[in-house]
Amino acid sequence: MKKDSYVQIISPNGDFRYGYIREIQNYGTVITVDLFEEGASKIAFEAEMATLLGYLPETSADYVRSLSDVEKHVAALLAQGKNNNEIASELNICSTTVRSHNRALRMKFQVSNKNQLVAICQGLKLENNTS
């Protein structure tokens, strides 16, 4: 571990969060980690791990390329904090369809709930071209 690295902190019950090593003191005995929701820190963590393991790191653009046009719009609106009804209204689709897109996005990003999905969407470089 080194300063300015992204890390995944896993608790004994299996829950985890992503963080950023802000400071290391006394030869690594005291490590200050800023914890984040998944978003950009998850993407940065996965890129660092891929580099360490010898893979090409995924970038925010790689995640965006894996999305359909509608999923990009939904993700951009989620990143703005809009709820399913607001997204449905803006895209002129029903809220059930929005929930289906949310489920597809959760599967693509391998997250288990909407809070994690919103955090990931906020970490992506998306443009809201819904007009």
The total domain count is 2
User: Which regions are unreliable across 5 or more consecutive residues at pLDDT < 50?
Assistant: none
Strand coverage percent: 15-25%
**So, CATH architecture of the largest domain?**
Orthogonal Bundle
CATH superfamily of the largest domain: Winged helix-like DNA-binding domain superfamily/Winged helix DNA-binding domain
Return Rg in Å: 17 Å
> What does the overall shape look like?
elongated
**Major sheet strand order:** 1-2-3
Percentage of residues assigned to helices: 40-55%
How many strands in all? 3
CATH class of the largest domain: Mainly Alpha
CATH domain fold name of the largest domain: Arc Repressor Mutant, subunit A
The helix/strand order is EEEHHHHHH
Regarding quaternary structure, how should these chains be classified?
single chain
In whole angstroms, the N-to-C terminal distance is 45 Å
Largest sheet: 3 strands, antiparallel
Number of helices: 6
Mean pLDDT: 77
The secondary structure category is alpha+beta
Q: Can you characterise this structure?
A:
There is one protein chain. This protein is 49% helix and 17% strand. It is of the alpha+beta class and 131 residues long. The chain has two domains: 6-52, no CATH class; 60-123, Winged helix-like DNA-binding domain superfamily/Winged helix DNA-binding domain (Arc Repressor Mutant, subunit A), CATH 1.10.10.10. It has a three-stranded antiparallel sheet with strand order 1-2-3.
